[in-house]
Amino acid sequence: MWKIPPTGSVTSASFGPYSGWTPTALTSDTSGNAYILWSGTSGQIAIFKVTSSLTLAGSYAFGPYSGWTAYSFAVGPDGHAHVLWNGPGNAVSLFNIVLGTSLTSEAYGPYAGWQAGAVAVDTSNNTRLGWSDASTSQGSLWNITSSGTVTSQTVGPYVGWTPDAMALGPAGHVRVLWKYTSTGEASVFDHAPNGSITSQPFGPYSGWTPTGLAVNNDGDTELMWTNASNTLSLFDIGNAGSYTSSSFGPYSGWQPVAVAPGP
Q1: Contacts of the segment 52-61: beta carbons below 8 A, 24+ positions apart
Q2: Which of 4, 87, 143, 249 is paired with 68 by a 20 to 30 Å CA distance?
Q3: How many domains does the chain have?
Q4: What's the pLDDT tens digit per position in 161-218?
Q5: 139 and 180 share a domain?
Q6: Residue 60 lies in domain
Q7: How many angstroms separate the CA atoms of 83 and 72, rounded?
Protein backbone atom coordinates (compact mmCIF):
# COMPACT_ATOMS: atom_id res chain seq x y z
CA MET A 1 0.00 0.00 0.00
CA TRP A 2 1.29 3.42 -1.05
CA LYS A 3 0.47 6.75 0.57
CA ILE A 4 0.94 9.47 -2.05
CA PRO A 5 0.86 13.04 -0.66
CA PRO A 6 0.08 16.09 -2.85
CA THR A 7 3.75 17.04 -2.47
CA GLY A 8 6.71 15.18 -1.06
CA SER A 9 7.77 11.57 -1.02
CA VAL A 10 5.71 8.38 -1.15
CA THR A 11 5.55 6.11 1.90
CA SER A 12 4.57 2.45 1.69
CA ALA A 13 3.87 -0.71 3.66
CA SER A 14 3.76 -4.34 2.51
CA PHE A 15 1.33 -7.08 3.53
CA GLY A 16 1.63 -10.78 2.76
CA PRO A 17 2.18 -12.90 0.85
CA TYR A 18 -0.87 -14.92 1.93
CA SER A 19 -1.20 -18.12 -0.07
CA GLY A 20 -4.46 -18.24 -2.05
CA TRP A 21 -5.40 -14.60 -1.36
CA THR A 22 -5.35 -11.60 -3.74
CA PRO A 23 -5.95 -7.92 -2.89
CA THR A 24 -8.80 -6.75 -5.14
CA ALA A 25 -10.15 -3.41 -3.88
CA LEU A 26 -9.32 -0.44 -1.67
CA THR A 27 -11.40 2.13 0.19
CA SER A 28 -10.99 4.57 3.09
CA ASP A 29 -12.96 6.26 5.86
CA THR A 30 -13.25 9.85 7.05
CA SER A 31 -10.68 9.25 9.80
CA GLY A 32 -7.89 8.42 7.36
CA ASN A 33 -7.98 4.64 7.80
CA ALA A 34 -7.68 2.52 4.66
CA TYR A 35 -9.34 -0.84 4.04
CA ILE A 36 -8.05 -3.57 1.73
CA LEU A 37 -10.44 -6.19 0.35
CA TRP A 38 -8.77 -9.58 -0.16
CA SER A 39 -10.39 -12.38 -2.19
CA GLY A 40 -9.63 -16.05 -1.50
CA THR A 41 -9.56 -18.89 -4.00
CA SER A 42 -12.55 -20.55 -2.29
CA GLY A 43 -14.79 -17.45 -2.56
CA GLN A 44 -14.13 -16.10 0.91
CA ILE A 45 -13.06 -12.50 1.60
CA ALA A 46 -11.00 -10.70 4.21
CA ILE A 47 -10.97 -7.00 5.10
CA PHE A 48 -7.78 -5.41 6.43
CA LYS A 49 -8.07 -2.14 8.35
CA VAL A 50 -4.89 -0.06 7.97
CA THR A 51 -4.23 3.15 9.91
CA SER A 52 -3.06 6.42 8.36
CA SER A 53 0.47 5.47 9.46
CA LEU A 54 0.11 2.27 7.36
CA THR A 55 -0.01 -0.17 10.27
CA LEU A 56 -2.48 -3.07 10.37
CA ALA A 57 -5.24 -2.37 12.91
CA GLY A 58 -7.36 -5.49 12.34
CA SER A 59 -8.47 -8.16 9.88
CA TYR A 60 -11.89 -9.71 9.39
CA ALA A 61 -12.89 -12.76 7.29
CA PHE A 62 -16.26 -13.68 5.73
CA GLY A 63 -17.56 -16.56 3.64
CA PRO A 64 -17.35 -18.46 1.46
CA TYR A 65 -21.00 -18.32 0.33
CA SER A 66 -21.72 -20.80 -2.44
CA GLY A 67 -22.35 -19.05 -5.78
CA TRP A 68 -21.55 -15.57 -4.49
CA THR A 69 -18.56 -13.32 -5.30
CA ALA A 70 -17.61 -10.03 -3.64
CA TYR A 71 -17.05 -7.29 -6.23
CA SER A 72 -16.74 -3.99 -4.40
CA PHE A 73 -16.92 -2.40 -0.97
CA ALA A 74 -17.03 0.95 0.81
CA VAL A 75 -16.86 2.26 4.37
CA GLY A 76 -19.36 4.81 5.65
CA PRO A 77 -18.79 7.67 8.10
CA ASP A 78 -20.17 5.40 10.84
CA GLY A 79 -17.26 3.00 10.22
CA HIS A 80 -19.48 0.23 8.83
CA ALA A 81 -18.17 -1.75 5.85
CA HIS A 82 -20.60 -2.20 2.96
CA VAL A 83 -19.67 -5.17 0.77
CA LEU A 84 -21.34 -5.82 -2.60
CA TRP A 85 -21.81 -9.48 -3.53
CA ASN A 86 -23.09 -10.79 -6.86
CA GLY A 87 -24.83 -14.15 -6.90
CA PRO A 88 -26.78 -16.50 -9.16
CA GLY A 89 -28.53 -14.70 -12.05
CA ASN A 90 -26.85 -11.41 -11.06
CA ALA A 91 -28.73 -11.22 -7.78
CA VAL A 92 -27.14 -8.80 -5.33
CA SER A 93 -26.53 -8.89 -1.60
CA LEU A 94 -25.27 -5.88 0.37
CA PHE A 95 -23.52 -6.66 3.65
CA ASN A 96 -23.53 -3.98 6.34
CA ILE A 97 -20.69 -4.99 8.64
CA VAL A 98 -19.81 -3.52 12.01
CA LEU A 99 -16.27 -4.84 11.89
CA GLY A 100 -15.59 -7.30 14.64
CA THR A 101 -19.18 -7.09 15.96
CA SER A 102 -22.14 -7.85 13.69
CA LEU A 103 -23.35 -8.33 10.11
CA THR A 104 -26.69 -7.66 8.43
CA SER A 105 -27.53 -8.06 4.74
CA GLU A 106 -30.10 -6.93 2.16
CA ALA A 107 -30.82 -8.71 -1.13
CA TYR A 108 -31.83 -7.15 -4.47
CA GLY A 109 -32.75 -8.67 -7.84
CA PRO A 110 -31.99 -10.40 -10.01
CA TYR A 111 -33.03 -7.93 -12.71
CA ALA A 112 -32.73 -9.35 -16.23
CA GLY A 113 -29.64 -7.99 -18.00
CA TRP A 114 -28.46 -5.82 -15.11
CA GLN A 115 -25.36 -6.38 -12.99
CA ALA A 116 -24.24 -4.35 -9.97
CA GLY A 117 -20.56 -3.49 -9.97
CA ALA A 118 -19.82 -0.58 -7.62
CA VAL A 119 -20.87 0.65 -4.19
CA ALA A 120 -20.26 3.86 -2.22
CA VAL A 121 -21.59 5.40 1.01
CA ASP A 122 -22.29 9.12 1.43
CA THR A 123 -21.88 11.36 4.47
CA SER A 124 -25.45 10.56 5.60
CA ASN A 125 -24.76 6.80 5.44
CA ASN A 126 -26.93 6.41 2.34
CA THR A 127 -25.63 3.69 0.01
CA ARG A 128 -25.06 4.34 -3.69
CA LEU A 129 -25.17 1.27 -5.90
CA GLY A 130 -24.04 1.32 -9.55
CA TRP A 131 -25.58 -1.05 -12.13
CA SER A 132 -24.82 -1.70 -15.79
CA ASP A 133 -26.65 -3.48 -18.62
CA ALA A 134 -24.13 -4.63 -21.22
CA SER A 135 -26.83 -5.52 -23.76
CA THR A 136 -28.32 -2.00 -23.81
CA SER A 137 -25.21 0.08 -22.87
CA GLN A 138 -27.15 1.67 -20.02
CA GLY A 139 -26.19 2.46 -16.45
CA SER A 140 -28.32 2.96 -13.37
CA LEU A 141 -27.42 4.72 -10.13
CA TRP A 142 -29.33 3.71 -7.01
CA ASN A 143 -29.64 5.69 -3.80
CA ILE A 144 -30.54 3.47 -0.84
CA THR A 145 -31.34 5.38 2.34
CA SER A 146 -30.38 4.09 5.76
CA SER A 147 -34.04 3.12 6.19
CA GLY A 148 -34.00 1.03 2.98
CA THR A 149 -35.84 3.32 0.55
CA VAL A 150 -34.52 3.01 -3.03
CA THR A 151 -34.57 5.68 -5.73
CA SER A 152 -32.76 5.35 -9.07
CA GLN A 153 -31.53 7.26 -12.11
CA THR A 154 -30.94 5.45 -15.40
CA VAL A 155 -28.62 6.93 -18.04
CA GLY A 156 -27.77 5.95 -21.58
CA PRO A 157 -27.71 4.04 -23.75
CA TYR A 158 -24.16 4.97 -24.73
CA VAL A 159 -23.18 2.36 -27.29
CA GLY A 160 -19.72 0.94 -26.63
CA TRP A 161 -19.45 2.52 -23.19
CA THR A 162 -19.63 0.71 -19.83
CA PRO A 163 -19.86 2.21 -16.31
CA ASP A 164 -16.91 0.84 -14.35
CA ALA A 165 -16.23 2.67 -11.08
CA MET A 166 -17.90 5.15 -8.75
CA ALA A 167 -16.83 7.67 -6.11
CA LEU A 168 -18.55 10.31 -3.99
CA GLY A 169 -17.80 13.97 -4.57
CA PRO A 170 -18.61 17.00 -2.42
CA ALA A 171 -22.15 18.33 -1.85
CA GLY A 172 -23.79 14.99 -2.52
CA HIS A 173 -22.43 14.58 -6.05
CA VAL A 174 -21.60 11.11 -7.37
CA ARG A 175 -18.88 10.59 -9.98
CA VAL A 176 -18.99 7.59 -12.29
CA LEU A 177 -16.21 6.36 -14.58
CA TRP A 178 -17.39 5.16 -18.00
CA LYS A 179 -14.98 3.23 -20.24
CA TYR A 180 -14.99 2.76 -24.01
CA THR A 181 -13.29 -0.61 -24.19
CA SER A 182 -12.38 -0.67 -27.88
CA THR A 183 -10.51 2.67 -27.81
CA GLY A 184 -9.42 3.00 -24.16
CA GLU A 185 -11.26 6.31 -23.70
CA ALA A 186 -12.67 7.41 -20.35
CA SER A 187 -15.49 9.75 -19.41
CA VAL A 188 -16.19 10.96 -15.86
CA PHE A 189 -19.87 11.66 -15.18
CA ASP A 190 -20.84 13.97 -12.31
CA HIS A 191 -24.36 13.27 -10.98
CA ALA A 192 -25.77 16.18 -8.97
CA PRO A 193 -28.40 15.60 -6.24
CA ASN A 194 -31.01 17.34 -8.44
CA GLY A 195 -30.48 14.73 -11.18
CA SER A 196 -28.44 16.84 -13.60
CA ILE A 197 -25.37 15.25 -15.18
CA THR A 198 -22.17 16.72 -16.60
CA SER A 199 -19.36 14.71 -18.16
CA GLN A 200 -15.72 15.12 -19.10
CA PRO A 201 -13.92 12.86 -21.61
CA PHE A 202 -10.27 11.78 -21.49
CA GLY A 203 -8.15 9.93 -24.02
CA PRO A 204 -7.63 7.74 -25.78
CA TYR A 205 -3.97 7.48 -24.78
CA SER A 206 -2.21 4.75 -26.73
CA GLY A 207 -1.53 1.72 -24.53
CA TRP A 208 -3.27 3.12 -21.43
CA THR A 209 -6.49 1.89 -19.79
CA PRO A 210 -8.61 3.74 -17.17
CA THR A 211 -8.77 1.44 -14.13
CA GLY A 212 -9.79 3.39 -11.01
CA LEU A 213 -11.59 6.45 -9.66
CA ALA A 214 -11.51 8.35 -6.37
CA VAL A 215 -12.41 11.82 -5.08
CA ASN A 216 -10.07 13.63 -2.71
CA ASN A 217 -11.18 15.71 0.27
CA ASP A 218 -10.56 18.85 -1.80
CA GLY A 219 -13.12 17.66 -4.35
CA ASP A 220 -10.59 16.81 -7.06
CA THR A 221 -11.11 13.59 -9.01
CA GLU A 222 -8.29 11.05 -9.09
CA LEU A 223 -8.42 8.99 -12.30
CA MET A 224 -6.05 6.02 -12.39
CA TRP A 225 -4.61 4.68 -15.65
CA THR A 226 -2.42 1.62 -16.18
CA ASN A 227 -0.60 0.12 -19.14
CA ALA A 228 0.69 -3.29 -20.17
CA SER A 229 4.02 -2.76 -18.37
CA ASN A 230 2.14 -2.07 -15.09
CA THR A 231 3.07 1.59 -15.04
CA LEU A 232 0.61 3.77 -13.10
CA SER A 233 -0.51 7.28 -14.04
CA LEU A 234 -2.71 9.37 -11.74
CA PHE A 235 -4.74 12.28 -13.13
CA ASP A 236 -5.65 14.91 -10.51
CA ILE A 237 -8.68 16.62 -12.08
CA GLY A 238 -9.92 19.92 -10.68
CA ASN A 239 -13.53 21.08 -10.67
CA ALA A 240 -12.85 23.31 -13.67
CA GLY A 241 -11.68 20.29 -15.69
CA SER A 242 -7.95 20.99 -15.82
CA TYR A 243 -5.68 18.24 -14.58
CA THR A 244 -2.14 17.34 -13.65
CA SER A 245 -0.67 13.84 -13.84
CA SER A 246 1.96 11.81 -12.01
CA SER A 247 3.45 8.50 -13.13
CA PHE A 248 4.89 5.64 -11.07
CA GLY A 249 6.67 2.44 -12.04
CA PRO A 250 6.93 0.00 -13.54
CA TYR A 251 8.15 -2.11 -10.62
CA SER A 252 9.06 -5.66 -11.56
CA GLY A 253 6.39 -8.13 -10.48
CA TRP A 254 4.03 -5.49 -9.06
CA GLN A 255 0.66 -4.47 -10.49
CA PRO A 256 -1.40 -1.40 -9.44
CA VAL A 257 -4.84 -2.48 -8.18
CA ALA A 258 -6.93 0.43 -6.85
CA VAL A 259 -6.97 4.04 -5.65
CA ALA A 260 -8.76 5.65 -2.67
CA PRO A 261 -8.64 9.09 -1.01
CA GLY A 262 -6.53 9.82 2.03
CA PRO A 263 -7.14 12.20 4.93
Answers
A1: 52/3, 52/262, 52/263, 54/1, 54/3, 54/11, 54/12, 54/13, 55/13, 56/15, 57/33, 58/99, 58/100, 60/97, 60/99, 60/100
A2: 143
A3: 2
A4: 999 999 999 999 999 999 998 999 999 999 999 999 999 999 999 999 999 999 998 8
A5: no
A6: 17-145
A7: 6
